[in-house]
TrEMBL record:
<keyword id="KW-0812">Transmembrane</keyword>
<feature type="transmembrane region" description="Helical">
    <location>
        <begin position="76"/>
        <end position="101"/>
    </location>
</feature>
<comment type="similarity">
    <text>Belongs to the BioY family.</text>
</comment>
<feature type="transmembrane region" description="Helical">
    <location>
        <begin position="53"/>
        <end position="70"/>
    </location>
</feature>
<keyword id="KW-0813">Transport</keyword>
<feature type="transmembrane region" description="Helical">
    <location>
        <begin position="29"/>
        <end position="46"/>
    </location>
</feature>
<keyword id="KW-0472">Membrane</keyword>
<dbReference type="Pfam" id="PF02632">
    <property type="entry name" value="BioY"/>
</dbReference>
<keyword id="KW-1003">Cell membrane</keyword>
<dbReference type="GO" id="GO:0015225">
    <property type="term" value="F:biotin transmembrane transporter activity"/>
</dbReference>
<protein>
    <recommendedName>
        <fullName>Biotin transporter</fullName>
    </recommendedName>
</protein>
<keyword id="KW-1133">Transmembrane helix</keyword>
<feature type="transmembrane region" description="Helical">
    <location>
        <begin position="144"/>
        <end position="165"/>
    </location>
</feature>
<feature type="transmembrane region" description="Helical">
    <location>
        <begin position="113"/>
        <end position="138"/>
    </location>
</feature>
<dbReference type="InterPro" id="IPR003784">
    <property type="entry name" value="BioY"/>
</dbReference>
<dbReference type="GO" id="GO:0005886">
    <property type="term" value="C:plasma membrane"/>
</dbReference>
């Protein structure tokens, strides 16, 4: 129990630290950040439930006003911006990523984490992000989808990094990989 709580807090902190990587804001108002990599890693390493809990802990801190999102954003005001769908989708993305890694035990961990990160950290997260952007920016879903296209290559790269980091952790500290235990 203590170990789970510690790892959940540690991965929530990882998402916060990845927000310190300088952001690049595109014309849609949605920044390119490393925080979605942290969300992918939460699921891939901690599994579906614990990964989602780590992200929820992070979001509680953000909603309480701590400036933990990229660019030093925090507070309930983040729910009024174009990133609202991504913020709301973070826990779902971690859950889906973790679920794939948990269920694909027969598949090498690198591939399972990569595919999980693609399905959770890209497909599921984009579904939430797309709806949020369309709503806040007053765009149709196809118009909002066009605004997301510049993010795809970077997020696929983040999914690959999540797969490689998960594999590295499984080799160095196999006990930390709760998604496979």
């Amino acid at each position: 129990m203590e170990r789970n709580v510690t790892l959940i807090a540690l991965f929530a902190a990882l998402i916060a630290v990845l927000g310190l990587v300088p952001q690049i804001t595109l014309m849609s108002g949605v920044p390119v950040t490393a925080q979605s990599l942290g969300v992918m890693l939460c699921g891939a390493v901690l599994g579906a439930r614990r990964g989602a809990l780590a992200v929820l802990l992070f979001l509680v801190l953000v909603f309480l006003g701590l400036p933990l999102l990229s660019g030093g954003r925090g507070g309930l005001g983040v729910l009024a911006g174009p990133t609202v769908g991504f913020v709301v989708g973070f826990p779902v993305a971690a859950f889906v990523t973790g679920l794939v890694v948990e269920k694909w035990r027969a598949v090498p961990v690198t591939l399972a984490a990569f595919v999980g990160a693609l399905l959770g950290g890209v497909v599921a997260l984009y579904a939430f992000g797309l709806v949020g952007m369309a709503f806040v920016l007053g765009k149709t879903l196809p118009e909002a989808a066009l605004l997301l296209t510049p993010f795809i290559a970077g997020d696929v790269l983040k999914a690959a990094i999540a797969g490689l980091v998960t594999r590295g952790l499984s080799r160095v500290r196999p006990g930390v990989l709760l998604s496979r235990s």
